[in-house]
Amino acid sequence: MKINTVRRHLRESFKSLGRNGWMMFASASAVTITLLLVGVFFVIILNMNKFASDIENDVEIRVHIDLTAKEADREQLKSQIEQIGQVKSIKFSSKQQELRDLIKTMGNDFKLFQQDNPLYDVYIVKTKQPTDTPKVAQKIQKMDHVESAIYGKGKVESLFHVLSISRNVGLVLIIALLLTAMFLISNTIKITIFARRKEIEIMKLVGATNWFIRWPFLLEGLWLGILGSILPILIISSGYFYLYRLVAPRLHNQFIQLLHYGPLIYGIDGLLLLMGVFIGIWGSSMSIRRYLKV
Questions:
Q1: Residues 137/22, Cβ–Cβ less than 8 Å
Q2: Cα separation of 7 and 115, whole Å?
Q3: What sign has the CA pseudo-torsion 68, 72, 76, 78?
Q4: What's the rounded Cα separation, in Å, for the pair 280 and 283?
Q5: pLDDT tens column, 74-100
Q6: Which of 70, 158, 184, 192 is deepest in the core (most CB within 10 A)?
Q7: What is the dihedral sign for C-alpha 204, 205, 206, 209?
């Protein structure tokens, strides 16, 4: 494509935006509203997924070692647990440490047990995949010198089931919202192009090629996508910035955390810009196709 032709297409696309100001405003508004909804939904879903991952990673197996087990028995048990393929890490906590943690959590009343500590030495086991926790706990429970392998049986399985459903529902909703956005924006742009069908027909009748006609409309879709994505990017960036400053300190030292501002927002901003450009160009391309058949 020649430089002069490129300049002509760019010039015509900008002129068209000015001539059809209200229709362009309607199209850009449709892009803005849709991308704003998509962006907000992405922020919510990604943080929910982060919460789910934090909860899953907090699941652990507490292996209570038999009170009669000697040090050699404990080492042998540790070796057996490490040989389980799904095990990620194993940490030893003595009964003295367990009592200190209990006093710190529950209060000084439990200092009475310092003279005669009734607690167990414990191995704290984490699996590579949190969903493997029940299977690993069952294997450990059958080993020698194991009093019990506790992981929250029943509750953990229910938790994993709920988290799995939440992720699947979130994915379906995102896809549905994106398809709805493309449909709405395509129809809005189609109305814009319908108002200019005579212009397209005249250009065809005087010998213009399909791509010569199509390029200015594709560029209009590009500008509409960019314009429509600016406001959602600004709103979501500033909104999440203030939300993060408000909520993050309150979640300090908690096992669930908000996603860090920078990586999340930069990713979503780039995604919204790309989506705006893609939807604008795609909508223009789909809408103009029927009017090129003269």
A1: no
A2: 88
A3: positive
A4: 5
A5: 889 999 999 998 999 999 998 888 888
A6: 192
A7: positive
User: For residue range 203-217, what is the model confidence (pLDDT) as tens digits?
Assistant: 777 777 777 777 777
Cα separation of 81 and 85, whole Å?
A: 9
Query: 154 is written with which tokens?
Result: 């029943």
Residue type, 51: F
DSSP structural state of residue 293 = -
Task: Determine the pLDDT at residue 98.
Answer: 80
Closest CA to 130 of 156, 149, 168: 156
Q: Which two tokens stand for residue 254?
A: 């908690």
* Total residue length of the chain: 294
* Domains recognised in the chain with CATH numbers: 3-55+158-292 (no CATH), 60-150 (3.30.70.3040)
Residue type, 17: L
Prediction pTM value: 0.68
